[in-house]
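Take a look at this chain, tokens included, and explain the fold to me:
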Amino acid sequence: LKEGPTELGKLLAALLAADINIFGSYALLTRPRGRTALALHVEDNECAISVLNQHGFQILGQSDISR
């Protein structure tokens, strides 16, 4: 997520508009590329990835956050 108070709201609004259920979420302690990262457990991974990419969010995989 980019710095600022509205990014989380934009992310949640994008998932809500696409009717994607969120089962759980947590903030990652590591800061990939100096930004805040949020781990999400969603109903449909492929759909969520597509929607978030369309809204300008960068999706990270395990290799992006592993040491």
Summary: The mean pLDDT is 88. The beta strands are 22-27, 38-42.
